[in-house]
Write a structure and sequence with these properties.
The chain is α/β, with parallel strands linked by helices. The protein is built from 15 helices and 23 strands.
Length: 595
């Protein structure tokens, strides 16, 4: 097949280099991909895992609006190991002449697919030259152990054949690290729980010693049901990240066992003891564990001291049950122990399971509130449209300890702008919103109070004292007066958010005092409220004169929910009273007026 002229020209236009040798010309691999083999030469001293000359393939394929490309090691004459900043270097299941071990040649910002962020030229000739130059830099850095420099973010090795759709979550903060170092146990047992509604995602809920005494019970959302049945995993503490040279994870149980021996961890002996222990409690704990989780100290950046524990997960642990009998062996415990040892030192492939740290500071790297706000307990009074929007924002930003108070019931009409859904219709808004929020983030701790404020029950009154920030989204002057009369006893951060008629604006008021200054807030709101509403403009929901609805579209509610959340962030930082009016203009801009 004739080579496209632009591909042939791209190679011909490259400046000659003593470090590059192209072997033949472009070849067609399938209906979409072209590739050209070449060799690259080190400018550094070769090492056993990076020889002077290595073989590669430049592969191109069409994408919307142009072509994309990558460089892969050749099957014949390519590098055999896996280095940092490289995909796991294994052959493809088909007959491709290149492996999967694509080195990372793009800049990190290139993952966002914005041309202005990548630094890569736009024209084909320039892009190919740029990639080849980056490859030459990469092999030199690999040979001199300079792919990663002190201060770089720590990179975990790629897990071979890991199922990216099956996630095992854990929660490890820096505050937990010292407790693990002083634990006094090298291994133990653990339980898992499913993330509700998620696809094949579980979390570790309890780390136990071999006698099933809880060592560390992990606090998760109320929606995650923990401690339901049996033992699901064996955990082992390792002294370091289990990685082989140059930078690859073990592919077989034998490789993992050898690494453990080199680091003074007797993996077969631990699994033999774990199997024996589990057989003794088999009647009480019928499920057989299928996971092995390996914990090790981890630093955030290269060269730094470790600050937290990280866990890797294996999903095909095999330990004998009491009824398991190997052909040719006696039905005795000694035979089962020997079988457990052999299972886990064999050339059996490891089935890695993708693991993720769901600690609060990790799952909110995309954006979180300041520590001052995250540390607060917030009571939301009013679980309507704007209250639900604000509560969702606060939770996603790290305010995990929330109370939701409202005695109203969700109806279908509310769904036009509320964050809840049809499954919540007929339930109290407070119950529905609390359940929804607990299902939103894995560390949510949201409590429902399905009643009006102020509560009449003494226990509920005592519960109110546990909250540091009181946010009113009820839109009711009666609630503001009740806030003023309630016996708070100590200073609180009070915030009141109320939309003006038609959601044209948002009135935001805050005070840090021992009682809410209701008279001041009501007087200021009355001063900026819209003129008397003409009854002819009212919309009715259903039949009858007692069914007017407050006019506000979902986009307006979301806008004021976002601005209201920002106002809460500022209010928590100050002890001064704040009173502001936000008004949406015809062009969509928002103007703020300090009152």
């Amino acid at each position: 097949m004739t080579t496209p002229p632009q591909l042939a020209a791209a190679i011909e236009n490259l400046l000659p280099s003593p470090r590059l040798e192209f072997i033949g010309g472009w070849q067609r691999f399938d209906d979409t991909r072209w590739h050209i083999p070449f060799r690259a030469r080190l400018s550094a001293e070769p090492i056993d895992v990076m020889p002077e000359w290595t073989a590669w393939h430049l592969v191109l394929w069409p994408v919307a609006g142009g072509v994309d490309m990558d460089i892969y090691p050749a099957v014949e004459g390519g590098i055999e190991g896996t280095f940092s900043h490289q995909e796991f270097n294994a052959p493809w299941p088909d007959d491709r002449p290149w492996t999967k071990g694509k080195p990372c040649l793009e800049r990190p910002a290139a993952i966002f697919r914005r041309e202005g962020w990548s630094g890569e030229p736009l024209d084909l000739d320039g892009r190919i030259a740029w990639r080849l130059e980056r490859l030459l830099d990469w092999i030199d850095a690999a040979a001199t152990d300079e792919l990663v420099a002190p201060g770089d973010p720590l990179e975990l090795p790629v897990l071979p054949n890991a199922d990216t759709f099956k996630i095992l979550g854990f929660s490890e903060c820096e505050d937990d690290f010292d407790a693990w170092l002083n634990l006094g146990h090298q291994w133990g047992l653990a339980t898992l729980a499913a993330l509700p509604g998620a696809r094949d995602t579980h979390v570790i809920t309890d780390f136990m010693d071999p006698q099933l005494h809880s060592l560390r019970e992990v606090r998760w959302s109320k929606a995650i049901k923990s401690g339901q049945s049996g033992v699901d995993a064996v955990w082992i503490l390792l002294p370091a990240l289990p990685v082989g040279r140059p930078w690859s994870s073990a592919r077989t149980w034998q490789e993992l066992s050898r690494w453990c021996v080199d680091h003074y961890v007797d993996l077969p002996a631990i699994l033999e003891a774990a199997g024996a222990r589990l057989r003794r409690i088999q009647n009480r704990m019928p499920p057989r564990p299928v996971h092995l989780v390996l914990g090790f100290p981890m630093a955030e950046r290269e060269g730094d001291a470790p600050t937290r524990l990280h866990w890797l997960a294996i999903s095909n642990l095999m330990l004998c049950r009491r009824e398991d009998v190997r052909r040719g062996f006696r039905n005795i415990e000694t035979a089962r122990k020997a079988w457990d040892r052999e299972f886990n030192v064999a050339q059996r492939p490891i089935a890695w399971r993708t693991s993720r740290n769901y600690a609060p500071d990790q799952i909110r790297r995309r954006g979180s509130a300041d520590a001052a706000l995250r540390s607060k307990r917030v009571l939301m009074i009013g679980a309507g449209a704007i209250g639900s929007a604000v509560a969702s924002n606060l939770l996603r930003m790290g305010v995990t300890r929330l109370g939701v108070m409202d005695d109203d019931t969700l109806v279908v009409g509310n769904l036009a702008r509320h964050s809840l859904c049809m499954a919540d219709v007929g339930w109290k808004k407070a119950d529905g919103l609390a359940n929804h929020l607990n299902l939103t983030m894995p560390d949510a701790d949201v409590v429902a109070f399905p009643e009006a404020f102020p509560p009449a029950d003494k226990k509920q009154i005592a519960e109110m004292a546990k909250f540091d920030v009181i946010v009113d989204c009820s839109g009711s002057d009666d609630v503001l007066r009740a806030l003023a009369a309630f016996p708070w006893e100590t200073e609180r951060h009070f915030v009141s958010l109320s939309m003006t008629w038609g959601a044209k604006g948002l009135f935001a008021y805050s005070a840090s005092e021992a009682a809410f200054p209701a008279h001041d807030a009501i007087e200021r709101f009355a001063g900026i409220a819209n003129a008397a509403v003409d009854a002819e403009d009212w919309e009715m929901e259903g039949i009858g004169c007692w069914h007017p609805v407050f006019p506000a579209s979902a986009n307006d509610v979301q806008l004021w929910g976002a601005i209201g959340t920002k106002f809460i962030r500022r209010a928590v930082e100050t002890t001064d009273r704040l009173c502001e009016l936000y008004e949406q203009q015809d062009d969509g801009t928002v103007e703020r007026t300090s009152l």
